[in-house]
Amino acid sequence: MLSNRQHWSAAVHALARECGAALHLVTAACVIGAFTGESERRLREAFAAALKDAAGGRPVIIFLDEVDALCPHRTAAQQHEARIVGQLLTLLDGVSALNPRQGQVPGAAAPQQAGQPQDQQRHQQQHAGHVLVVGATSRPNAVDPALRRPGRLEREILVQAPDAAARAAILRLLAARLPLDASVDLQRLAQESHGYTGADLQALCVEAAMHAIGAPAAGSIGNATAAAAAAAPEAEPLPALRSVTAADFAAALKQVGPSMARGAAVEFDPISWDDIGGLEGVKCKLKQAVEWPLRHADAFQRLRLKPPCGVLLHGPPGCSKTTLVRAAATASGATFISLSGAQLYSMYVGEGEALLRETFRRARLTSPSILFFDELDSLVGKRVEGEQTGESTARILSSFLTEMDGLELAQGVLVMGATNRPHALDAALVRPGRFDVVLYVPPPDKEGRLQALQIHTRSIPLAPEVDLRAIAAATERYTGAELAAVCREAAMTALREDAASAAEVRQAHFEAALAGIKPQLAPADLACHAACWV
């Protein structure tokens, strides 16, 4: 049985072609009928047709695609589904018993018929082709356990998403028919398309080719519209087809993402490290934890270094913790998956834990990936001895710790958390092997505040008299969010002063903004945050 639906259909068809076997496809859509007994009859007819081909000496493959729909777990199945499951199990037992010479591997000869001489039956069995039954599903736990016991679908193969080397090989096959430009580096494209399946890569190549057709080459008609071309086709010839360039694939990557990350990956505007003022030490450590394992994977392998499993950012509110995480995701190019407490907690028992497990599973499938938990203290609170911990919180925390331990066997998955209440986190979270790296994100210093003010005033027309360095010196204990609010309020002050002809922001406007916006952090709060390393 093949699990994790990626390339199994193509693999089974390739196996049938290589072995010269007859392929019989059995799906729930072609088996399940509306009347009682019709489904079981169709299933018997499908297996009988396969055994008839095998009776002529030809190997046969019976492919049960989406076997979880055909043979669901009988505890949750309806009566007609239970009958189909029973019929399928009976047919598999019959197929397995017909080839004893090959060690009970599912094979079959023609079934014995009533009144047929035993010598003729033995002769047919000796010259019958082998029958192999292959099941495929993306939900192996939804299949009835009786189907997975020895003698039926006894060997299970996990078909994972292709790695970088496999993606490069797939891209070479898919791009063989495309007129590729010399600028296209398929090896680099394979590195950038992490989490893509074979079907995703095919869609990527199609989208790149369509972009090349839709974007005219240099020197062609350029901005001529389709309407103009239709009105005067003889005057405006269509642009000549051109090679598919690296720019076409870059545009296709923005349109076609990994299918496994759909519904989980978060789209956000790219943020660079230069968009964050100050915090040079924090940014350096984040680069080492996030970028280095991807860019220097060979060096990590040589030194037997293990990348960190988790990074925890803690500090006062408004100090760019979430922005730092997004900058790390942008710089690394990893799939960014975010989860909040509002998504996890549900009125139904076990639903939050199931969502947590599914999110970790998707992160592993789309690796390299960053799994981000904002306001981590609201998801996994502290267990206090002698106090009653909420049952749902305890279950979520237990599931979270279990999944974090499982990441030791996974590669390319980094869990990042952010909190401004580190004392509310359970101590089990920050032991080695879970959140290995704990970083304190303080408010920016004087130089950091100057950089933040320069960033926030990039699009604001400033008067020559504005002295950002003096403003930075006057904003002690201001966070990055508060500095952004000061710049915004200064522009609003200029607008309120003269809405008709305001063209620039002066120093007086910043002084008025500083008089209205005060820092929320007291020196005692900073000392408490700096001393608490969880």
Automatic annotation (TrEMBL):
<feature type="domain" description="AAA+ ATPase">
    <location>
        <begin position="4"/>
        <end position="163"/>
    </location>
</feature>
<keyword id="KW-0547">Nucleotide-binding</keyword>
<dbReference type="InterPro" id="IPR003593">
    <property type="entry name" value="AAA+_ATPase"/>
</dbReference>
<feature type="region of interest" description="Disordered">
    <location>
        <begin position="102"/>
        <end position="127"/>
    </location>
</feature>
<keyword id="KW-0067">ATP-binding</keyword>
<dbReference type="InterPro" id="IPR003960">
    <property type="entry name" value="ATPase_AAA_CS"/>
</dbReference>
<feature type="domain" description="AAA+ ATPase">
    <location>
        <begin position="307"/>
        <end position="445"/>
    </location>
</feature>
<dbReference type="Pfam" id="PF17862">
    <property type="entry name" value="AAA_lid_3"/>
</dbReference>
<dbReference type="GO" id="GO:0051301">
    <property type="term" value="P:cell division"/>
</dbReference>
<dbReference type="InterPro" id="IPR050168">
    <property type="entry name" value="AAA_ATPase_domain"/>
</dbReference>
<comment type="similarity">
    <text>Belongs to the AAA ATPase family.</text>
</comment>
<feature type="compositionally biased region" description="Low complexity">
    <location>
        <begin position="102"/>
        <end position="119"/>
    </location>
</feature>
<dbReference type="InterPro" id="IPR027417">
    <property type="entry name" value="P-loop_NTPase"/>
</dbReference>
<dbReference type="InterPro" id="IPR041569">
    <property type="entry name" value="AAA_lid_3"/>
</dbReference>
<dbReference type="Pfam" id="PF00004">
    <property type="entry name" value="AAA"/>
</dbReference>
<dbReference type="GO" id="GO:0016887">
    <property type="term" value="F:ATP hydrolysis activity"/>
</dbReference>
<dbReference type="InterPro" id="IPR003959">
    <property type="entry name" value="ATPase_AAA_core"/>
</dbReference>
<dbReference type="GO" id="GO:0005524">
    <property type="term" value="F:ATP binding"/>
</dbReference>
<protein>
    <submittedName>
        <fullName>Cell division control 48-like protein B</fullName>
    </submittedName>
</protein>
